[in-house]
Amino acid sequence: MEHVPARQAGDTRWPDWVDQRLVTRWANLGISGLWPHQAEAADLIHRGQNVIISTGTASGKSLSYLVPALSSTLDGGTILYLSPSKALAADQLRALRELDPPGLRAATYDGDTSFEERAWVRKHANYVLTNPDMLHRGLLPRHAQWSLFWRRLRMVVVDECHGYRGVFGSHVAQILRRLRRICARYGSRPAFLLSSATANEPGVFAQRLTGLQMAEVTTDTSPRGATTFALWEPPLTDLRGEGGAPVRRPATAESADLLADLVASDVRTLAFVRSRRAAETVALTTRAKLQDLVIDGEAPPELPGKVAAYRAGYLAEDRRNLERALRSGELLGLATTNALELGVDVSGLDAVLIAGWPGTRASLWQQAGRAGRDGQDALAVLVARDDPLDTYLVHHPEALFGRPVETIVLDPGNPYVLGPHLCAAAAEIPLTHDELDIFGPTTKEVLADLVGDGLLRERATGWFWTSRERATDLADIRGAGAAPIQVVEMSTGRLLGTVDEPSAHSAVHTGAVYVHQGETFLVAELDLEAGVALVEAGTPDYTTFARDVTDISVIESLRSHPLGQGELHFGAVEVTSQVVAYLKRRAQSGELMGDEPLDLPPRTLRTRAVWWTLPTSAILPLAEECLDLGGAAHAAEHASIGLLPLFATCDRWDIGGVSTELHPDTGVLTVFVYDGHEGGAGFAERGYARARDWLTATREAIASCECERGCPSCIQSPKCGNGNEPLDKAGALRLLAVLLSPEPTDTPPFLPEPTDVLPEPTNAPPLPQEPANVSPLSRKHTDMPSLLPDPPDTSPLPQEPANLSSLPLDPADVLPLSPKTQDTSDVTGGRAARMTDGG
Fold it and tell me: CA–CA separation, 390 vs 393, rounded Å?
């Protein structure tokens, strides 16, 4: 239990340059001025400086940009507001209309905007709220239709920018560079204001995201009520999992109990869960528990109706109605994905439940900050999943409290990201030599490859896009890849939704359980050639999770240094994976029911990895003690993947892993952890920079688990391809002890001690590229989320245009064991196993 004390507010004032008409309207809403951090950011942007404001949840960051933005519209300027989600943009539009400043013509421009409304927005709006998808596919390619807007553009607001990390963030970084280029063509030079939850080194991140120098505002002077933060570990059950390991009660089931208790006590509560399916399940279970209270005469009959689910995939009108009901108090409990993590105004909440580690400290505090937004005291509860990282955190609260949040990792220079955006930029306006610096130092190399592959044509005046195809189609900024798979109900022909093609292998394979708006379906057939998954209604009492097998080969080691008695490497690898089976587990208890084979084609991914090796001389004493070296490496791999999100701004499903007692490319025992995105995402590089801290935490997590031989809380992977066999918990501890043994050469003399600052990704040479394939960042190696009953947000529910709330899936993770036996397994939540005779 942690108590976060209350904080008193700083003095308020209005800057002298704010129009009195705006001051009067805010005064009518009870706002008497700006707190010091708001005034500092507003003054900077008013003077034309680029600035990032990085303060806590509910610290009034919106006013920091609204004051200078609305002042600009009064002077005839235009404003572009970028949000990572439709919900946040809609909430901002509601606030603007409530304020009703003179001369404001604000409108959203996203996937929910009709064609008639879009024409009006282009001609008349002076405050446009959109998202990176629409900017990429709509505004920039049709820049001529927006010429009046661009010429008067004074300010670009990038809200909740901490969400732009990894591959998605790298894409957004290049979109912002294309935006700057378009603005320059129309004679404008807007100031950029970035708004972020508390971040480590926000100025460095903002510069990497925009390519511009940034001032920082980080001192929070807003008032805050006290928060009680509890860490909750569900109890062990009598059930046994793979290898007879004990199984904890699912975090979703525990969260549903807590949500029912809080709602019954009239406590307004948000329950954050990891998947769309889990949001529906928690809401249904909570309503059922409240209905039992009604039957027993312990609750009013309307109480179950005060609980609902909220997630991407609902119609826009339904989402807005849920947001209004939550704000008004009509709803007391809401189970939601991270779609409500961002700055949507849901003031009046008393408590927040977080079912499973949300991936980063920044997300944890962002979600916890949804409660207590009116300055009142609040309760936040992190309910741990049966997972190595969650278990480590509840037993090591010092890793959460009093620690800075993570550095935000992105790599705009990734050639798989940069190449498609250079094509898009050339299609918008031919590229000239003078414009190359805006896209980064590797631009000339990537352009040469694009010309060689026939995607661009070079002339004396620059580079030209000559194809009739849309260049923006080369860059799928969320990494979905090929055309989506349509999910169709067999009996009616009704289109239920779509799933991106890589996710389809693990989400809508034949036999998968598919949930759509509370209805459950079974996938009868997945036809990849036709792009269709046929489903039929059903009521299974189980959930399904895919497994795959994975092989990995080393392309090039880019950096290395000694680590203990072994070596640590960072470099380029090629990963080949194939979904080969799926598991069935009881929905409520998590009990394993068995697995079924699948026959799906393999997928190949070129990415970056961190790996460590131990020579034969170091492991020979362990072998002489009859330790299972393959099982020890396997267990260490599982646990290390589970702990990496504590040191890099990634989610478990962003990374994968492979371990082997003897890898053909290294000739020794090797454990790999790789980025699950084409070209890499910076996560493995982060692991390389923090290797000793990361692997020390991994060993501590294994050692502190109370189980005897290994369980899902320490070394078992929910989607291990070989049924979590072999695993050796004691061997993993010994193996990591050898690797972490103090050696004077642990830290290379040419590298600084590991810090929270990630080395510039551009220092490393680009990955070798495949012939005539420069756009494959749209491809992503994916797999099903965790086998635990509360997997990440990857359920195959309807996807909407420009809705960025869905999360990427976890890439494969594997374990080839020895020259003769090879087990491919995963640690992030799922890999199918394969046994191979080496011959």
Answer: 5
